[in-house]
Write a structure and sequence with these properties.
The chain is α/β, with parallel strands linked by helices. It contains 17 helices and 30 strands. Strands 1, 4, 5, 6, 7, 8, 9, 10 and 11 form a nine-stranded mixed beta sheet that branches. It binds guanosine-5'-triphosphate, sulfopyruvate and manganese (II) ion. The site of sulfopyruvate has 9 residues, from helix 7 and helix 8.
């Protein structure tokens, strides 16, 4: 039992409120995990998958009305509404506590309350932060053991830090409640470092270390402490000389972070000696180091990745790590009890994600937001530096979204201010990672729309504040793998071939690659991209690199309106940057220039 008073007092309070039958302090051991799995197999919460092909792999089928994050039920509860900003749902903290505590009252009767001490980030890193999640879901405990450093070492760190300063860990209270969408809330109290979530057992709603702590609460802490908590992958790219450069990339949910983080370069690159190392696939905490560079850690210890689309062709690294010791949520299964999802070329589904007999034409076999949970150590491209206490230095920051039209394959911001505008004005078509319509274009600044724990206007100002004397900031880029041609098909092959874009990006960072200047930023000319062995017509390549001034004028008008929607808190520098580019586009329109030729 913990000696830390703040923790035991809080657990006692929660026990009084929720009235569980039992309290279990998680130690994070394998024996504990195995016992939980047994319990869930007995209750039907888990189904064992084929032990011959997938030893120690299990399937969880969530409630069909609980399959994704619920942005409309996610609240930031700050005393002052403006601190949460127009980007968040807001509730007064006292009102929020009252509302949600009423739902928590007695909700764990007949259940076990689990206390999960966890550390986000390497256990010995000064950049890491601890939290404790209380939950009544054994599925959440099992997932948290994979996704975080959970158990005894985390508790020891909490005790150590707690003896110096109270309130150093994030308190997260979670219950599946009745899994009733009408009694579901995900509430954040950033200035209390606390989270309360009820009514969902799915992903980011329930694994509180992930989006709730490592993004919403952490972004708030990061602002006051001078660092950044971002929805970014971290990938290391080793060139034939053996030098490794690290890139952090922010793409919205289900827009390609896991895939880029585990990229396998095209054959010609591999023979030339290029190699890609995975450091993180979803969250990145970045802090300016003594050398002025940004140093990044991945606060997570595992991957909660999108299953559909993961195949031997698109992401062989991911597929290879899913053969043992993994939890699958809402995938389909084959007659042999193997997990199955759309995009796999082998196997035939017999039961869909709800456990019903699979009938073609009755919707997808696997839920579009079905996912796998797996330890990062099972990834063959897992970087030997992924757990370095000081993190890895970031050379480039990449923003990107799903844009069928308009946005070219890649462009480079001319400086930090321009880059911050590029991130702030990011647009992307929505995906199945959150409930609601799919494919609707919306602004998703820095891929943080669902995850920034405070007013976006203040967040933009915070980003701008890193540009100061002595800073050696990464260059900023924007990519779009999702531009479509007139035939409605993706123009760019994507996946492993994204390496070609990364090579150009790194070349721009070290000054070895050429580019053409345009009002929206610097683009590679066709000859600047390595297209050896690439099956892509010249016409498609030109379409991918095309900047249409008329359409961009309209886009910049809309960006101006978006910035204005944050009112007077919007940094003026950003508005001036928007005006500068809008004016340059109008000039360009008067005097058309061809992009794509030297
Ligand atoms: P979260 O875990 O939700 O934050 O998402 P993520 O950004 O890690 O998404 P992920 O990498 O799992 O990508 C999800 C979807 O994007 C899958 O359907 C992929 O097939 C698709 N995708 C990823 N990379 C590419 C690409 O380069 N081209 C195309 N066309 N699709 C891609
Ligand atoms: C996302 O939606 O961006 C995810 C999945 O990474 S979840 O953990 O459910 O938020
Ligand atoms: Mn994510």
């Amino acid at each position: 039992m913990s000696k830390l008073e703040a923790l035991t007092r809080w657990v006692d309070d929660v026990v009084r409120l929720t009235q569980p039958d039992r309290v279990h302090w998680c130690d994070g051991s394998e024996a504990e995990y195995d016992a939980l799995v047994e319990l869930m197999l007995a209750s039907g919460d888990l189904v064992e998958l084929n032990p011959r092909t997938h030893p120690n792999c299990h399937l969880h089928r969530s409630s069909p009305s609980d399959v994704a994050r619920v942005e409309h039920l996610t609240f930031i509860c700050t005393p002052n509404k403006d601190d949460a900003g127009p980007n968040n749902n807001w509730m007064d903290p006292a009102q929020a506590h009252a509302k949600i505590d009423a739902l928590f009252a007695g909700c764990m009767q007949g259940r076990t309350l689990y206390v999960i001490p966890y550390c986000m980030g390497p256990i010995d890193s000064p950049l890491s932060r601890c939290g404790v999640e209380i939950t009544d879901s054994p599925y959440v405990v099992a997932n948290m053991r994979i996704m975080t450093r959970m158990g005894a070492p985390a508790l020891a760190r909490i005790e150590r830090e707690g003896s110096r300063r109270e309130g150093t860990f994030v308190k997260g209270l979670h219950s599946t409640g009745e899994l009733d969408p009408h009694k579901r809330y995900i509430m954040h109290f950033p200035d209390e470092l606390s989270i309360k979530s009820i009514g969902s057992g799915y992903g980011g709603n329930a694994l509180l270390g992930k989006k709730c702590h490592a993004l919403r609460i952490a972004s708030w802490q990061a602002r006051s402490e001078g660092w950044l908590a971002e929805h970014m992958l971290i990938v290391g790219i080793q060139n034939p000389q053996g030098e490794i450069s690290y890139v952090a990339a922010a793409f919205p949910s289900a827009c390609g972070k896991t895939n880029l983080a585990m990229l396998i370069p095209p054959e010609s690159y591999r023979t030339a000696g290029w190699k890609v190392w995975t450091v993180g696939d979803d969250i990145c905490w970045m802090t300016p180091g003594a050398d002025g560079r940004l140093w990044a850690i991945n606060p997570e210890a595992g991957f909660f990745g999108v299953a559909p689309g993961t195949s031997a062709k698109t992401n062989p690294n991911a597929l290879a790590m899913l053969n043992h010791d993994a939890i699958f949520t809402n995938v389909a299964i084959t007659a042999d009890g193997d997990p199955w999802w759309e995009g796999l070329t082998e196997g035939t589904p017999v039961k869909d994600w709800q456990g019903r007999d699979y009938v073609a034409g009755n919707g997808p076999a696997a839920h579009p937001n079905s996912r796998f949970t797996v330890s990062a150590r099972q990834c063959t491209s897992w970087s030997p530096h992924a757990e370095d206490a000081q993190g890895v230095p970031i050379s480039a920051i990449v923003f990107g979204g799903r844009r069928e039209h308009l946005v070219p394959l890649v462009f480079e911001a001319r400086d930090w201010t321009h880059g911050v505008l590029v991130g702030a004005s990011m647009g992307s078509e929505t995906t199945a990672a959150a409930t609601g319509a799919v494919g609707v274009l919306r602004r998703d600044s820095m891929a943080m729309k669902p995850f920034c724990g405070y007013n976006f206007a203040d967040y933009f100002a915070h980003w701008l504040s890193f540009d100061k004397p002595g800073a050696k900031l990464p260059k900023i880029f924007h990519v779009n793998w999702f531009r479509k041609g007139e035939d409605g098909k993706f123009l760019w092959p994507g996946f492993g071939d994204n390496m070609r874009v990364l090579e150009w990006i790194l070349g721009r960072c070290n000054g070895s690659e050429g580019a053409a200047e345009t009002p929206i930023g610097n683009l590679p000319r066709a000859q600047d991209l390595n297209t050896d062995g690439l099956d892509l017509t010249r016409g498609k390549l030109e379409a991918l690199l095309h900047v249409d001034a008329d359409s961009w004028i309209a886009e910049y008008e809309s960006i101006g309106e978006y910035l204005a929607s944050y009112g007077t808190r919007t940094p003026e520098v950003l508005q001036r940057e928007q005006q500068r580019i809008a004016a340059a586009l109008t000039e360009e329109q008067m005097e058309p220039q061809e992009v794509g030729t030297p």
